[in-house]
């Protein structure tokens, strides 16, 4: 099983993380995650819902949402993607980890900003304490959208215009990774690493745009050990 890891996070001994790619089903790969006693995933619905897992709600299953964070050791947070942007955060001040699934709807609703804001509110952290990694996802080179999608980003913020290119056929190229990185920077996060891998260009990675229903998934995980 192939795992892409971040250089930014790999030196942190109390942390385990990775982007397992071309995973062929949506069963949690527990044999690979031996550092954890529990694995938490969400019913991903392309929302901007950010969930905090503590001892009180840890046993709840099938919770809808697209971002989650925790400070519980041995708990793995995992999300599935196949073009959407997987983002993991580590707050060095509070020891909090976070996993974010950012498709175009979640990105438009600024789920990344909301996740950072929740961590700051819950743990009195600052953006300077947070390390962020964006994993493999569809790139600006390949992510073509209609005007209806592009216009929603322009209506959200004029700052997003630099992440959208209009084509001569009336379509638009959208930079989802760039917008999420912009949201991190706007939230005060400066320690950011991007995989800079387009899932549609690179056939080692699953892409729903390229492969349709036959696409595998990237399982992105992070947790305290």
Question: What are the SSEs and their pairings?
Answer:
Layout: E1 3-4, H1 7-10, E2 15-23, E3 38-40, E4 50-53, E5 67-70, E6 75-81, E7 85-91, E8 96-102, H2 104-108, H3 111-123, E9 130-134, E10 144-145, H4 147-156, E11 164-166, E12 172-174, H5 176-186, E13 191-194, H6 208-211, E14 217-224
Parallel strand pairs: 3-6, 4-5, 9-13
Antiparallel strand pairs: 1-2, 2-14, 5-8, 6-14, 7-8, 7-9, 10-12, 11-12
Descriptive tags:
single chain, CNF1/YfiH-like putative cysteine hydrolases, alpha+beta, 6 helices, five-stranded mixed sheet, 225 residues, six-stranded mixed sheet
The helix-and-strand class reads alpha+beta
Radius of gyration: 17 Å
DSSP strand content = 25-35%
Query: What's the multimeric state?
Result: single chain
The main sheet comes to: 6 strands, mixed
Order of helices and strands: EHEEEEEEEHHEEHEEHEHE
**How many DSSP E strands?**
14
């Amino acid at each position: 099983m192939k795992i892409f890891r971040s250089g930014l996070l790999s030196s942190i001994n109390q942390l385990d993380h990775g982007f397992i790619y071309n995973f062929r089903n949506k069963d949690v790969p527990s044999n690979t995650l031996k550092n954890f006693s529990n694995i938490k995933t969400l019913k991903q619905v392309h929302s901007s819902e950010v969930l905090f897992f503590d001892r009180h709600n840890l046993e709840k299953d099938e919770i809808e949402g697209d971002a989650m964070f925790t400070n519980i050791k041995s708990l793995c947070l995992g999300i599935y993607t196949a073009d959407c942007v997987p983002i993991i955060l580590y707050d060095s001040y509070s020891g909090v980890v976070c996993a974010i699934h950012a498709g175009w709807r979640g990105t438009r609703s600024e789920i990344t900003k909301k996740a950072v804001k929740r961590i700051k509110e819950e743990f009195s952290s600052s953006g300077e304490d947070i390390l962020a990694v964006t994993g493999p996802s569809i790139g600006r080179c390949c992510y073509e959208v209609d005007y209806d999608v592009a216009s929603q980003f322009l209506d959200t913020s004029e700052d997003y215009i630099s992440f959208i290119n209009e084509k001569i056929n009336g379509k638009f190229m959208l930079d989802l990774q760039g917008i999420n990185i912009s949201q991190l920077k706007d939230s005060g996060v400066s320690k950011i690493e991007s995989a800079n891998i387009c899932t549609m260009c690179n056939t080692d990675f699953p892409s729903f745009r390229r492969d349709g229903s036959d696409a595998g998934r990237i399982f992105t995980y992070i947790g305290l050990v």
